Amino acid sequence: YTTDRWNAFGGQASMAYPGYGDGGISGTGRADQVVNYRVTVAKIVELGAQVQFANSQNDAYGDGYGASVQVTVLPGLKLGGAYTQMEMTDQAVEELTGVAGDAKYSILGANYSSDILDVGVVWATQKNGDARYIFEPGVQDPEQIPVFFDGSGVEIYLRGKIGRWGLIGGYIDYDPETDDTFLDPDFRTRYLIIGADWQITDGTGFYTEFRIDDSVGGEGQEGSSVGVFGLKYKFSWKTSHRP
């Protein structure tokens, strides 16, 4: 409900999808092998808890757990926060570059929504929870290795609504800590998002988004600005669980 609502870009500073993944193993994005429990108190406070079980196909991550709280402060205004921690195995600490302990993710967010405006802001931070693959320096015939690092980021989402039209804006700023790593000292993810969409029906619409990039890759590569055009269609199946 905060910022991960763009059509094509975003989500890179909120720790939702670390390490080129979808957040499944880390428990932050599309978490897998988890048990969730959610409860709403007085229609104002929403509490959540999560337990994630070790993946037999991955030698780096063990069990994990997380918790969240969200509060409706005023009509249309919601504040929230969450914390997730994943156990890094002894093998991961010994063999993976940059890993110094368990992976820890924290996030604070706010969202305001009205008939004409949606605004989302998040601040997130992580330790040992993200990685980039780079060619190992100083080695003949180098192979790509994962380099883990700490970092923090900010995302801002804006959408103005005029009937079925929407004007979209955003800002992504992810600042990794590169000291004592193989990563380029200027490594960062930073870009603006501008775009628009048109809802033809409740489930169908066109959109366009442009990313104006000022990023630097883990090995010093300059980021690329890019634009996309697309068509989206939403659908769902509803199944009754009544006997």
Detail the topology: elements first, then pairings.
Elements: E1 34-41, E2 45-52, E3 61-74, E4 77-88, H1 90-95, E5 103-113, E6 117-135, E7 144-162, E8 165-177, E9 189-199, E10 204-213, E11 226-233
Antiparallel strand pairs: 1-2, 2-3, 3-4, 4-5, 5-6, 6-7, 7-8, 8-9, 9-10, 10-11
Notable traits:
single chain; 243 residues; mainly beta; 11-stranded antiparallel sheet; 11 strands; 2% helix
Q: What number is the mean pLDDT? A: 89
Based on CA atoms alone, the radius of gyration comes out at 20 Å
Helix count equals: 1
Strand content: over 45%
Classification by helices and strands: mainly beta
Main sheet strand line-up: 1-2-3-4-5-6-7-8-9-10-11
What is the subunit organization of this protein?
Answer: single chain
Distance between the termini: 33 Å
Helix-strand topology string: EEEEHEEEEEEE
Shape: globular
Report the count of strand segments. 11
Largest sheet: 11 strands, antiparallel
Provide the helix percentage: under 10%
Quick recap of the structure?
With 243 residues, the protein is mainly β. The protein is built from 1 helix and 11 strands. Strands 1-2-3-4-5-6-7-8-9-10-11 form an 11-stranded antiparallel sheet.
Descriptive notes:
The radius of gyration is 20 Å and the shape is globular. It is built from one helix and eleven strands, in the order ββββαβββββββ. By secondary structure, the chain is mostly beta strands. The longest helix has 6 residues, at 90-95. 2% of the residues lie in helices and 55% in strands. The protein has an eleven-stranded antiparallel beta sheet with strand order 1-2-3-4-5-6-7-8-9-10-11.
